[in-house]
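Posting here for the record, re: NAP.
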Amino acid sequence: MAAMHNPAGLSPIVAGAWRLAEWQWTPQQRLAWIEGNLDIGVTSFDHADIYGGYSVESLFGEALALRPALRSRMQLVSKCGIQLVTPSRPGHQVKHYDTSATHVRASVEHSLRALRTDHLDLLLIHRPDALQDYDELAEVFATLRREGKVRNVGVSNFAPHQLAPLHRRLPLATHQVELSPPQRSALHDGVLDQCQDLGLRPMIWSPLAGGRIFTAQDEAACRLRATLESLAAERGISVTTLVIAWVLRHPSQPLPILGSRRIEVAQDALAALPLRLDAQTWWQIWTAASGREVP
Ligand SMILES: NC(=O)c1ccc[n+]([C@@H]2O[C@H](COP(=O)([O-])OP(=O)(O)OC[C@H]3O[C@@H](n4cnc5c(N)ncnc54)[C@H](OP(=O)(O)O)[C@@H]3O)[C@@H](O)[C@H]2O)c1
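Prediction output follows.
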């Protein structure tokens, strides 16, 4: 196995800030969420310029400003490249991607101001851009690193053939991808094989399928939930712990990003770290999720 590199010194469980604006919290409540995560060892926070319609980074930065010393205990991740149509960006006529050096630099500068920090520990290109110029992107990444504004770089939601040309020009730290029992594409489309091959530990978004593991009512979801509940009960653990253990079992050594507002969900996820599911349990969950046996 390739030596796996921990991107940007991220914590083994990461806190995702995507939903932060929806929670409609006061700055003090946001600070409590940040501190609650830090106190249990969830020290990395995942952002993107566009979260909350370009508002989440500022909401986070406002809370961080109440206790600026916390910055030295955390790692901040952000992303750029998606351009939303929204009143705060009147120049955007169509939702599109922009991975030009000019936009990447402008987005990083904006994220630094909003988060009230002088550097990002990790910057990711949010989605692959059909117009991405690999030389230009590698060059702006290298310049931002030289300037100390960005410590590590990576991508998100890329196909293997899109990650490889960039990684050849400049070593990437990670690939952020979706994985959960209901969303298994990365297991079979070459994405996680490539992570293993290159020694990139993937960051995993929506590991609890955005909560649908617990709430969805379609037949497939109910079948999966029944299996998860029975396997979790046999082991005396929660369904959250079991699902995170399922994600962690992949040999690419994934780093799950949780999107919950509740610290107890992070605690349940941390409880999965010492577990190692046996292969049959892992495939039992795969089978319940897919509704079929392996061939
Ligand atoms: N790179 C990308 O393209 C991309 C895309 C999407 C997300 N992300 C990142 O990944 C992070 C995580 O994504 P996510 O929020 O979808 O992750 P997730 O952890 O799979 O889902 C979080 C959601 O599940 C709910 N939930 C958790 N436990 C529950 C339970 N027992 N019963 C009912 N609901 C429950 C949470 O609600 P409560 O708050 O009430 O617990 C929350 O709304 C995001 O914050 C973002 O940083 C990246």
